[in-house]
Fold:
Amino acid sequence: FGDGTTETGSVLIGTDGGGSAVRGMLLPSPASDPEVLPYEFLNFPVKYTAEQALYFDKELHPIVDVGIHPKSMYAGVFLMDKPDMDRPESWTFYILATWPKEEGVTYDADMDMLPELRKRMDGWADPYKSAVEWAPDEKVKIVKGGMRVWAPKTPWDNRGGRATLGGDAAHSMTFHRGQGGNNALRDSERFVAGMMEVKEGKKTLKQAVDDYDTDVRARGVKEVEVSTVQTHATHDYKAYKESPIARHGIRPTIDIDKHENKAGEHASTLS
Structure:
């Protein structure tokens, strides 16, 4: 590694995020390069006064609280951590916001974006508006590189089963449908299941990793595509009611496919 340390193992699993260095090793550019979507992206942790934190604890959904605005903007406020239940001022919240890039408007990488975000919260209701207005005056920077996605359309060289990808490195998707974590967990389950088959002598390492890669790529291509469609619809208020999340919720695409296949079979039986 860059710091001079070394590690030894039998299989390398690149789970190093959307800008994965391992992906670049297994799949040459430009096939490994992410696509940049036309949206600005802010995300940052924040702490409030005890009174403010208690207000958000009461008003926010306990898992995730997000909203969209007709002016083509998305915002989310989350309670991430309560290190001391008796000291609400120690609790960590997280703010997320996206909006379309505007022609001729650029933000310097070192620019404080909090004033810009506060300006854009005009017309929002609580708790979103107050979450931004009450945030301490600490510098917030635009996300470097913008909002990027990568779909595994091209097979990578898994070196005979000795190297593969998982999580955002294998299928970097937007968060507007909330499927990144689901797919990362699915990757983990599938990889471990494959390694168990190798241990039990049911498959060679190459067979197990080939099968894992096939599942990851097929699922990843579809999830990235659907999540990207959702991102565009999230910033197009008129299109939102027909968006994937409005029609199917936050179910993984494999569950949606199963549901639609059963519905189709039922319809065929009735006809």
